[in-house]
Amino acid sequence: MLLLEPFWVYSSVALCVACGRKELLKVEDIWGNRFFSGIMVMIAGVFVPVENWILHRHAAWETTFIVRNVSDSTLIALASLLHILIALTGYWLSMHLLRKYGEDAVIKSTMWAFSVFFTSQGLFYDSLMYSGTYDEYHAGVEKTFVSFFYTDRFFDAYIIFFLLYGPVFYYLAISWNSGYSTEERNTFIWKLVNEVVLHAAAIFGAYFFVCGAGVLPTKFGLYRLLPMLLMHFVSHGLVVLPLLLSSTKERED
Fold this sequence. Notes:
Strand content: under 5%
Largest sheet: none
């Protein structure tokens, strides 16, 4: 989904920076180090090609049904350039936050980006997770949230994407988060979990309030809290929990 992918790219990059926090604070040249090289391999070498393939196969869904299909390479080229620019900007910003404000600032920006990306899919599932065709969408044909999980776009954009991008992302995050003491590792992970819970309270509390106040259109009912909760907690769990595999000083000794 091109609309939300900037949040995913930034959060992926920033989390990797947060995981490599101790060594990155020592580097003199933020562009000339193995961390930047690894991040660019992850984004330019894996994320961009996989996303381009998904965009080509599911152009209508990827563009939130603005276009029916991709007839030439212009849109794909622009999407590739956008992703790489966001990765470069995100790396610079997260490094700036790390050096000036510390790891907590990077963690907060990372987890807010993840929260926006995940929760928005649940809130706007009738467009961002729509299971119908381009014509059905513009004809106003309603589809359920669950029906999306039985589509080829879910298989391509979530399962195939996860199988290709996940190993690289997890390798960088887990290996860069290794070498700390058990207490340091667990404290870092707890900070991530704490952000997930705080964001849930803020986002779901605000949504409950505006629904009760009748501010939103009638289609935005309390029933949308279920897909929002599912996308928020399950997706965050897939990001955060694997970091428990990071080796510690005690384990290495």
